[in-house]
UniProtKB/TrEMBL annotation:
Recorded superkingdom: Bacteria
Keywords: Transferase
Pfam families: Glycos_transf_2 (PF00535)
Name of the protein this chain belongs to: Glycosyl transferase family 2
Record domain Glycosyltransferase 2-like: where: 4-116
A GO molecular-function descriptor: transferase activity
Keyword Transferase appears in the UniProt entry: yes
Length: 337
């Protein structure tokens, strides 16, 4: 199985992280067909990476600024049977691609996503991760690293781009974009990632471009499956500013806004199916566990329970605001008829 790996990059501030990500892909036991770095409208970074990574295909984002345009550009360049995506501030375990590849023996599998663990503040530097990746020393470290804030609930690890409590291996509605792979054919069936949903130059940390794509793909090919494989492990860096409660709250609100855009595209039933299950089952259990921990003397448990309540409320508020914003232009058009 030929797998092209696409890494979307945009800033020189992640120079060391980018090279650590590339080193981890080079060290894969299932060797990639090619590594593609897509540079998002940054000519200086593009020129520097072409010089420093001569064995990597470095291309400029040919579409609109942002992650969706970068991914679409990478797909258009890729020559593999499968296209895998890795975040530019993440490193992959040596069996990452092998864990993806084994599922593609089943012709009904259109995409496979993996387990993303957090590199919290205090984790090894990018240079150290690059050294470990190049020597294959990441294997077996299937645990998060650094210092997770005591108040931060695992049920909301998606706010920092990581696998969250409640995800289970097997068929899944959508994959997480920074640790995902798709058959090249999937993009011929569903088209590319939609602009205006994922992260771009917008100041808010919007997301969900991969959610909308996965739902749209399965609406067009309901016989295809998307699979979550927890053996396909990567580690994703969480900078200090994203480990703060202010970012947590902002990210939850932005997720609600993004979900409103997703449901406008693919419908409410498919767009919110997983979110309803998470809110009705996983989050109450998490809040109860936090309260129980507090009663047993873990003061941070109360913080986790409170963060779950705040996170759910702010996500719902963002969704309500996004839905109302979508309805206003429609009502204005109808009133003008």
């Amino acid at each position: 199985m030929n797998i092209s790996v696409v890494i979307c990059v945009y800033t020189e501030r992640r120079w060391n992280d980018i090279h650590a990500a590339v080193a981890s892909v080079r060290a894969q036991r299932h060797q990639p067909h090619e590594i593609i770095c897509v540079v998002d409208h940054n000519p200086v970074l593009h020129a520097r990476l072409k010089r420093s990574l001569p064995d990597v295909t470095v291309v400029a984002n040919a579409q609109q600024r942002g992650l969706s345009g970068g991914k679409n550009t990478g797909v258009s360049v890729a020559r593999g049977d499968v296209v895998a995506f890795l975040d530019d501030d993440a490193v992959a375990a040596p069996d990452w691609l092998a864990a993806f590849a084994k599922h593609y023996d089943d012709p009904d599998v259109a995409g496979v996503g993996g387990r993303t663990l957090a590199l919290w503040p205090g984790s090894p530097s990018a240079a150290e991760l690059r050294r470990r990746a190049g020597r294959g020393l990441l294997e077996g470290e299937h645990v998060e690293a650094g210092r997770r804030p005591g108040w931060f609930p695992a049920e909301f690890d998606w706010t920092v781009g990581c696998t969250y409590r409640g995800m289970r291996p097997g068929p899944i509605r959508n994959l997480m974009g920074g640790n995902a792979s798709f058959r090249k054919e999937a993009f011929e069936v569903a088209g590319g990632f939609a602009g205006g949903i994922g992260r771009s130059h917008h100041k808010r940390p919007l997301g969900c471009e991969e959610t909308e794509f996965c739902i749209r793909l399965r609406q067009r090919r309901p016989d295809w499956e998307l699979v979550y494989e927890d053996a396909a492990v990567i580690w994703h860096r969480v900078p200090p500013e994203r480990a703060r409660f202010s970012y947590f709250r902002q990210r939850c609100y932005a997720e609600g806004l993004s979900k409103a855009l997703v449901t406008r595209s693919v419908g409410t039933r498919d767009g919110l199916a997983s979110e309803r299950a998470h809110a009705l089952r996983t989050l109450p259990r998490g809040a109860a566990a936090g309260l129980g921990a507090a009663l047993r003397g873990d003061a941070a448990g109360l913080g986790r329970a409170g963060a779950i309540a705040v996170g759910l409320a702010w996500t719902a508020w963002g969704y309500a605001v996004g839905t109302a914003g979508a309805l206003r232009p429609r009502r204005a058009r109808e009133a003008g008829r």
